[in-house]
Write a structure and sequence with these properties.
There is one protein chain. The protein is α/β, with parallel strands linked by helices. It has 3 domains: 3-242, Aminohydrolase, N-terminal nucleophile (Ntn) domain (Glutamine Phosphoribosylpyrophosphate, subunit 1, domain 1, 4-Layer Sandwich), CATH 3.60.20.10; 250-446, 3-Layer(aba) Sandwich (Rossmann fold), CATH 3.40.50.10490; 447-590, Glucose-6-phosphate isomerase like protein, domain 1 (Rossmann fold), CATH 3.40.50.10490. 34% of the residues lie in helices and 24% in strands. The protein has 18 helices and 27 strands. Helix 3 (106-115) crosses helix 4 (126-136) and helix 4 (126-136) crosses helix 5. It is globular. The structure holds fructose -6-phosphate.
Length: 607
């Protein structure tokens, strides 16, 4: 959701910023722009549309400039027009600002600045920052920005240039992520690590309520009160190849096919297959005695959390509840030092989940972050962390991080139950044995792709698709529906199959596709009965099942997608895979932009 890049060094800045913006496209945006600074002052170019639309116009920028900032904007205040695209400037074009997030009190600030004579040229909340810095600037850009952001409310990340101090960029963050990268004689800033891969050798995430002044020689961090902040940078471990498509048509397809590795890596450090046990040493001294558990998360991460709720309640004798993070704060959760809250987030930066973490901590709960991004805000603000090891996910629609989340949550459940003594060593052994086989099963399951392409072709004209399942498969049905609607724009709903008669059955008409997740031993006959009901109304039954040869399935299903038989944590993971492929190929038949679906952003940093 919006992307920031910045560079100061000795190289020509325009191509560096342009490449950085392309690498942040996955975050979601609808306009883009760049501002650079040279002896002539600030020059900028910006426009509505894609980063590639900007390429021609970039020739108008001074090619020798070596300092600049760039932005991809996901419109919040004001339509995605050229005028509203960032960078925004002050009255005299001497200060340029790019900004992610929302300045919630921009209206009173704008009115005050206009009363003081400032002239605005856009509808954005961002422009107030340019004018505010202009009004506060007295030779020291860092200090002017510090005073400006102290007056701003909301969640934001900004990068600011001033022609009065042409050797530096000032950045600040509250809520929205910013990562600073360094190489010999050059300093970078970006909203996320992919924009720095192959360029920076070390990185450091800026903390909340912190500012940094970047020059070619390095950077200095202070907090919003002006105190110096020191923390070590870390070397960049990800490979630039991980952010290339590697021969696949889309990142999403590549990431779907990376799941054996993503899940394998996630499990590797957490299970010891030789002695069939689980280990999460980071939690050993971090978790108190607890009497209930909340899982907080959004979107796909919520579906993984809901799957964990089903899995954990079989082995942990305490109330467990998965709650959508944005609702958590509105409700009255029972929070005490005996509450365990697990915050599940791929990015570790989702603002709703971060706010739920803060609410939980205010109530005295112990918070465990389950994230894919070390050092992210949710990781930093939690008491302990469990990491997914899915690698960078570029496709906006989550795929490999979903299955990595269920894997990590599954192991966390085993750990908690073993620690509490509610799961025997032999039960843990059995589950670990199954998990050790899971990467191979994932590879086997993804081999169904050819037949799924045919099914997707039949499905891609549909107006509505229902996804029905029971038990732990219900969250997977929700995820199947979310994937389909996100990338194909077909209306889709996930329901517990038992709920069908209580409403959704009204949608079933001649040929309406209904996807059933049917697994041996999981309310099998009841789900079959629901299939009968759909068939009786001439719906089109697609059965994703581990019993593909069962006579009842052969009789009722119009299409069958086989899944390897499994139990425990592995089962929901395996059933998720064909749903991802079905959504992907349906979107392909419909010709949508799979990696950057309309209106969506990869990391949602506004509430
Ligand atoms: C769906 C999707 C979103 C995210 C949600 C939470 O494909 O990607 O629903 O799952 O925005 O994001 P994280 O996990 O980063 O907190």
């Amino acid at each position: 959701m919006c992307g920031i890049v910045g560079y100061v060094g000795a190289k020509q800045v325009v191509p560096i910023l342009f490449d950085g913006l392309k690498l942040l496209e996955y975050r979601g945006y609808d306009s883009a722009g760049i501002a650079v600074l040279d002896g002539e002052g600030i020059s900028r170019c910006r426009r509505a549309g894609k980063v590639r639309d900007l390429e021609q116009d970039l020739r108008s920028l001074p090619p020798a400039a070596t300092i600049g900032i760039g932005h991809t904007r996901w419109a919040t205040h004001g339509k995605p027009t050229n005028e509203n695209a960032h960078p925004q400037v002050d009255c005299h074009g001497k200060i340029a600002v790019v900004h992610n997030g929302i300045i919630e009190n921009y209206m009173p600030l704008r009115e005050q600045l206009m009363a003081d004579g400032h002239v605005f040229s856009s509808e954005t909340d961002t422009e107030v920052l340019a004018h505010l810095v202009e009004s506060l600037l007295d030779g020291d850009l860092l200090e002017a920005v510090r005073k400006a952001v102290a007056r701003a409310e909301g969640a934001f990340a900004v990068a600011i240039l001033s022609s009065d101090t042409p050797d530096r960029i000032v950045v600040a963050r509250r809520g929205s992520p910013l990562v600073i990268g360094q190489a010999e004689g050059e300093t970078y800033v970006a909203s996320d690590i992919p924009a720095l891969l192959g360029r920076a050798s070390s990185v450091q995430f800026l903390g909340d309520d912190e500012l940094a002044e970047l020059t070619a020689d390095g950077f200095r961090v202070i907090d919003f009160h002006g105190n110096e902040v020191r923390r070590p940078s870390r070397s960049v471990s990800a490979d630039p190849v991980s952010i290339q498509k590697g021969g696949y048509k889309h990142f999403m397809l590549k990431e779907i096919h990376e799941q054996a590795r993503a899940v394998g890596e996630t499990l590797r450090e957490k299970i010891d297959a030789s002695v069939q046990t689980v280990r999460l040493p980071s939690l050993d001294n971090a978790i108190p005695e607890f009497d209930h558990i909340y899982l907080v998360s959004c979107g796909t991460a919520f579906h993984a959390s809901l799957a964990a709720e089903y899995l954990w309640e079989q082995i942990l004798p305490v109330p467990i509840q998965a709650i959508i993070a944005s609702e958590f704060r509105l409700r009255s959760p029972a929070l005490s030092p005996r509450t365990l809250v697990v915050a599940v987030s791929q990015s570790g930066e989702t603002i709703d989940t971060l706010m739920a973490v803060r609410r939980a901590k205010d109530g005295g709960a112990c918070v465990i972050a389950l994230v894919n991004n070390e050092q992210s805000a949710i990781d930093r603000e939690s008491d302990a962390a469990v990491y997914m090891r899915a690698g960078i996910e570029i496709g906006v629609a989550a795929s490999k991080t979903f299955t990595a989340q269920i894997s990590a949550l599954g192991v966390l459940g085993l750990y908690l139950a073993a620690r509490r003594g509610t799961l025997s060593a032999s039960d843990v052994e059995q589950e670990v044995g199954r998990l050790a086989l899971l990467p191979g099963r994932i590879t086997e399951c993804l081999q169904q792709e050819e037949s799924i392409i045919q099914i997707a072709e039949r499905m891609h004209h549909a107006h509505d698709v229902l996804f029905l399942a029971r038990g732990v498969m219900f969250p997977i049905a929700l995820e199947g529906a979310l994937k389909l609607k996100e990338i194909s724009y077909i209306h889709a709903e996930g329901y517990p199959a038992g709920e069908m008669k209580h409403g959704p059955i009204a949608l079933i008409d001649e040929g309406t596709p209904v996807v059933f997740l049917l697994s041996d031993g999981l309310a099998y006959d009841k789900v079959l009965a629901n299939m009968e009901e759909v068939k009786a109304r001439n719906g089109h039954v697609i059965a994703i099942t581990d019993t593909p040869d069962a006579p009842a399935v052969l009789k009722l299903a119009d299409d069958i997608i086989p899944v390897p038989a499994s139990e425990g944590i592995s089962r929901p993971i395996l059933f998720a895979l064909p749903l991802q492929l079905l959504a992907y190929h349906t979107a392909i038949w419909r010709g949508t932009d799979v990696d950057q679906p309309r209106n969506l952003a990869k990391t949602v940093t506004v509430e």
